[in-house]
């Protein structure tokens, strides 16, 4: 006899055992799909691109004199960005970790990183670290921090070019 998914269902009646089996199958399938989607999102990092989803026009984040060699967090839209002077030039790096998007902290312990004796950006989630140039030093992050486009206009620091996400 041929088995079918509708076995036990006849003209508006539903066998209790088949209904329970159907519910268990549905729940298991939903759980498996949810787990696979979650794993995929956490294992495959988001792509970094200058043509990111958030496209803002140039945003004034403060006067040039506000920034020194210590990274200062500002916002470009909702994206937290570190802005500071590096070798005399103002630079900007996204604080979003390229692994799974936790926010990296500049020098969170107020001491040099014991692994290399230098100040670093450290990710609190899975311990990726990045140097002052945004380069990945270690950890699961697949690459360095996203460098944000900036320009100086009339003494104002302007961020632009979209975000990495
Ligand atoms: S989010 Fe995993 S190392 Fe940063």
What is the strand and helix layout of this fold?
Blueprint: E1 9-10, E2 13-14, H1 16-43, E3 59-63, E4 72-76, E5 79-86, E6 89-94, E7 105-106, E8 121-122, E9 129-130, E10 136-138, E11 149-153, E12 156-160
Antiparallel strand pairs: 1-2, 3-12, 4-5, 5-6, 7-8, 8-9, 9-10, 11-12
Can you describe what's shown?
This protein is of the alpha+beta class and 165 residues long. The chain folds into 2 domains: 33 residues; 111 residues, Rieske Iron-sulfur Protein. It has 1 helix and 12 strands. It has a 4-stranded antiparallel β-sheet with strand order 7-8-9-10, with no helix packed on it. The protein has a 3-stranded antiparallel β-sheet with strand order 3-12-11, with no helix packed on it. A 3-stranded antiparallel β-sheet has the order 4-5-6, with no helix packed on it. Strand 8 and strand 9 form a beta hairpin. It is elongated. The relative contact order is 0.18. About 5% of the residues have low confidence. It binds FE2/S2 (inorganic) cluster. FE2/S2 (inorganic) cluster binds next to loops.
Key features of this structure:
165 residues; four-stranded antiparallel β-sheet; 2 domains; alpha+beta; Rieske Iron-sulfur Protein; three-stranded antiparallel β-sheet; 12 strands; elongated; binds FE2/S2 (inorganic) cluster
Question: Concise description?
Answer:
By secondary structure, the chain is an alpha+beta fold.
Q: Helical residue percent?
A: 10-25%
Count of discrete domains: 2
Strand order of the largest sheet: 7-8-9-10
The total strand number stands at 12
Strand content: 25-35%
What is the overall number of helices?
1
Give me the oligomer status. Answer: single chain
Report the bound ligands by name, code or SMILES: FE2/S2 (inorganic) cluster
| Rg measurement, Å | 25 Å
Helix/sheet category? alpha+beta
- Give me the CATH architecture of the largest domain, please: 3-layer Sandwich
Strand/helix succession: EEHEEEEEEEEEE
How far apart are the first and last residues' alpha carbons, in Å?
A: 55 Å
CATH fold node name of the largest domain: Rieske Iron-sulfur Protein
- Please state the overall shape, judged from the principal axes of the Cα atoms: elongated
Q: What number is the mean pLDDT?
A: 84
| CATH top level label of the largest domain | Mainly Beta
Profile the largest sheet: 4 strands, antiparallel
Low-confidence stretches: 46-53
């Amino acid at each position: 006899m041929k088995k079918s998914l509708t076995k036990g269902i006849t003209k508006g009646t539903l066998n209790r055992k088949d209904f329970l089996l159907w519910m268990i199958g549905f729940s298991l399938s939903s759980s498996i799909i949810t787990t696979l989607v979650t794993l995929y999102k956490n294992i495959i990092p988001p792509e970094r691109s200058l043509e990111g989803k958030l496209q803002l026009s140039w945003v004034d984040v403060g006067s040039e004199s506000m920034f020194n060699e210590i990274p200062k967090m500002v916002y470009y839209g909702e994206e937290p960005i570190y802005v500071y002077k590096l070798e005399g030039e103002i630079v900007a790096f996204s604080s979003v970790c390229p692994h799974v998007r936790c926010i990296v902290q500049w020098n969170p312990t107020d001491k040099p990183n014991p692994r290399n004796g230098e100040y670093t950006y450290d990710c609190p989630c899975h311990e990726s670290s990045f140097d002052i140039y945004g380069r990945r030093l270690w950890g699961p992050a697949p690459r360095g921090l996203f460098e944000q486009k900036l320009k100086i206009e009339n003494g104002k620091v302007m961020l632009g070019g979209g975000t990495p996400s």
